[in-house]
Design goal:
By secondary structure, the protein is mostly helical. It has one domain. It is built from 4 helices and no strands. Helix 1 runs antiparallel to helix 3 and helix 1 packs parallel to helix 4. It is elongated and about 50 Å long. Pfam families: DUF2516. This is DUF2516 family protein. InterPro entries: DUF2516. Keywords: Membrane, Transmembrane, Transmembrane helix.
Length: 97
Amino acid sequence: MLVASWIMFVVHWGSALTGLFAFIHALLQRADAYSAADRKTKPIWMLITGGSTLAMALFSVMGPGMIFWVPAMAATLVYLVDVRPRLIEVQRGGRNW
């Protein structure tokens, strides 16, 4: 039981740190890059990633708080997997295939 508790502890705070990384990345990007990447605006993504980070820090992976944790983690992963690569590509100049 002790090992499972430690695993949940690591998942809980690891996800909060992942959300914090996404929030900081969203904060540091140029506002025009979001529209150039055809994504939502910078303030919206800052709100999504910031709120997600807060939800993941406040609510546990297990228990009733999971109803808030799961969508928060999903939103963070959408930013990291979809929005972040497009922002990097747009700001780098994109690929000319």
